[in-house]
Every structure is written in structure tokens, then in C-alpha cells.
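User: Here's a chain of 320 residues. Predict its fold as C-alpha cells.
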Amino acid sequence: MTSRKIVDNRGVTVYAPDLQRTYEPARADWFLPSGKKLAVSILMHAPAYMDNVPEGALKPLEMQGGVGRDTSEPRIGQVVRLSQWDFGLTVGIFRLMSIAEAVGVPFAVTLDQYGVEHAPGLAGEVGRRAPEIVARGRAANLVFSEEISPEKELITIRECLGTIREATGRTPAGWFSPERATSSRTHALLAQAGISWFGEWPVDETPVVVPTEPSEVVSLPFSLEAEDMFALYTRGMRFDDYEQFLKDTVQQLLEDADIVGSRFLGLSWFGWVLGQACFADVAERFLAWLVEQPEVEILLPSEVAPLAGRAVSADSAGGV
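Assistant: Prediction complete.
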């Protein structure tokens, strides 16, 4: 009998497991200090798939990626399928960064511990070019759940942060859990480790303050529907339809802002997905279009998080 534990992410991926039951989505309107209607943050992911996981590790049964859109987990040594993930670390993430740099938009990049330790040049180059670095756990396919002890979960978080800090010389302020999976303790433990925001809950269209001990932490809702991996692989959307979907999403949020105050859109893009040559022109065209929108403000996630819960009126914000 093996001690390796397999977790079906269809069962454990709860997007807001410790969201307070008193949370009221119909709260006071939120306004950006700039008076803009929509804040957009670009989060680029560089996750590394661990082919041979440690015994006792918790991992999802199904993940996207691989030839033929087989979503079952690659077996050890399946180079052809795993190469799609590796492509994101060696080519895709750098292509996405170059696109954003050419357009002149700020962006954040997620790194995990395994990728930092095993992908040559990844941490150094991302550390040098990315305006913000975000921690992404131990590896793409190692997830948190209630089966992990709080002590082990906190050690994992701190080891991840320490590895990224040592490799890049930068201290992450944000976190994005692999497969968006967490335990009910994860966000309190992140706060203990000094993290100020996390991105895996697509629960709202504004930042959400989550009260934890010893300090609060902010949920920045990076959209699942607008995520490239979910749209292009899980839903099978055509890439030209995805480009139009992104524009339609922005337009709808701008219209909504006239009624309920400023909105936030977190865009989540993976190096191995939108960083492919066949998809990259979608990122190029969309970002070029986005910077031309007068009511849109593109901010780093760490710039949006402190604005959560701000009681700014429309008048003082410049009138949204």
C-alpha cells in the first residue's frame, strides 16, 4: 500500500472555504482614488509540474495541459505531455513578459518553490524583470487541504517564501494557491507568514478584506472565467472568441461601475497557455486595446490590495 494520497480537486477545490458567513456582497460601493471605473491587474503564472511527487503529498487527480487535451495526470516520465508545462517556464513566461513590457503595462509573476529550484535562469530573469513577484506554493500539482497539519502547512508556506526570496532577492507580498485549492487555515497562515493578499478566490469584483489573526489579509478576486487556462482548455473556447470575451468583460464591468462603483478585474494568464505563439497575439492585441481605455487603470496587485475596504466616496474619488 502506498502512502501517497490522491485528492480529486473536483471535491476539494472550494473557492472561499473560510469566507466569513457574515460577508455581505451588497456592501457599500467601492471607488478607486483615481476616479477610474475599473482597476485591472495582470498576473502571469510560471508554475512547475513536479513529475515525481514526495510520498504523502496531496495532489489533484486532474489537471489541464498535455497533448490531446487529456486532463488526467501525466504519469512519471511522460516527457511529451509535461513538456507543455516546461515550455511555460523556458519560453512562454518570457514571451508574456516581453509583450507587457512592449505595451508598457505593469504585471506580476507567480513562482513556485519547485520551479525556482529546478528551472535554470527562471528566478533570476523574473526577479530582474517583473515589477511584482507572487508566491505560488511548492509546485503546480501539490495542493493544500484539511489533511495537512497546520504546522506542516505553515512550514511549507515559509519554505516557499524563503526559497523565492533567496533566488530572486525579492520578498513576495502576495500568494496564489496551486489549483486555487486551500485548507480552511491557509489564509490565516499566510497572514502569519507576512502575506498581505491572495488571489485564488473569484468571489467578487472588488477586493475583499478577510479578517484573520494576527492581521487581516485581502482577497483579490482573479477571475476564473477570464483565466486563459480555464477558458481555452477547460471550456475549449476559441482563441479569437477569448479575445472578444476579455473585451466584453471589460466593457460590462465599466457599465456596472456606473451603478455600483469601481470594479476590479484580475487577469490570470499562464506562460504555457497564452505564452504559446499561437495564442500570444491575443495578449498583444488585448493589452494594446486595454491601455487605450480611458476609464481603466492598470495596477499591480500589491497596489490594489491596500485600497480594499476604503470608504472613498464617488465625489472624493473624482466621480465615477
